[in-house]
Amino acid sequence: MATDVQVPTLGESITEGTLSQWLKKPGEKVAADEPIASLETDKVSVEVPSPIAGVLTEQLVKEGDTVAVGAPIARIDESSIAAAVSPAQSAAAATTNPAGAGENVQLREAEPAVATAETSSADDHITTLSPAVRRAVLEYHVDPTKIRGTGKDGRLTKDDVIAAAQAGSSPAQAGAQAPQAKEPTPAEAKAPPPGPRPSPGNAGERREERVKMTRLRQTVARRLKEAQNTAAMLTTFNDVDMSAVIDARARYKDLFEKKHGIRLGFMGFFVKACALAARDIPSVNGSIEGDEIVYHDYLDVSVAVSAPKGLVVPVIRNADSMSFAEIEKTIADFGKRAKEGTLGIEDMQGGTFTISNGGVFGSLLSTPIINPPQSAVLGMHRIEERPVVKDGQIVARPMMYLALSYDHRLIDGREAVTFLVRVKEAIEDPTRLLIDL
After folding, report:
1. Cα(285)–Cα(346) distance, rounded to whole angstroms?
2. CA-to-CA distance for 5 and 15, rounded, in angstroms?
3. Which residue from 76, 129, 175, 295 could staple onto 54, CB 3.0 to 4.6 Å apart?
4. Mean pLDDT estimate for the chain
5. Is 326 contained in some domain?
6. Which of 394, 391, 418, 390 is nearest to 404 (CA)?
7. Residue 222 lies in a domain
């Protein structure tokens, strides 16, 4: 009996996705709830599980196809599971010698069975790699079967492959065997066949590579442009002396990590500072819906996190009532799951205010774009020592530029500047965070 595998509900307002990768091939056994395909939506990647145990008999769509919620994408036959025999099992069965033909014949027949099983295992491992990981494996000449994955269910990530290559675990690097042939990249596949090289006087060979935009990248592009077209966006700047926060982290980081099992980072201070400032300037935490202004008595902070397929913004809910440890643990969990691609759609929905930390990438100053329907976003930047005047003396201080982009339809300039000053004051004197000043 065959059962259709349907596209699951992908979240509120999401009606379709793109089948980015098949995790199982026709003829392979699948267990109940085992992922058989990966879907990419406007916000996250999700896996499609098999509703029953059986054999995948048919793939109804191809990788890259757009599929609607509820649409069938594959068929699982539970009656075929008993008949499904892997090549390794068939080869092993062939080694049985009921007629007593002799031990030498049995030994000779058993050897290819072992080789077949090993090859099948390696091939299955390769087919379950994501496109980015598969390409990294080919580029770095590593054996994926010898790398321990840190992703979900032990799957390999691109970082795992790079780390293995840098550690010299690759057979090609370690000299354990002859280098394997490298599969050409899309750019190399377009290159002309080998022949005379251009003369030194020529500019050399010029190449192009065309890659289809992912649904996530298309959605990000559309929403950012929509924000520019809709909101009356303006940015105000300030700088903040990070000395007090740096000193506090240095003084308490060991005790904090010992007690809570997580490092004390900068983001916790900024989340708490924004929560404090939003109480004085509630419009920064508000939004416009039609001809009404919606004010929130809670602060749900969208934190920009870098993921392999682009920027995602999971939400720290009720951040205003969370402790430093709770904030840091939530952010660390978001970062881990973003790297593994396991963030759910529910993690992205909502959010009343956004914090983006471009400083981790080395950004000195930027004008962040608001995330509709939110009305403001705080941009953090890198910390660097700069000369400043303190008590009439020029001294070096670890300074950070802050940027607040806001929707001028809702937030006045005075309110935006006041909000940013409140954040600055709380960061330069963290005691304010404890006594609610």
Report:
1. 20
2. 17
3. 76
4. 79
5. yes
6. 418
7. no
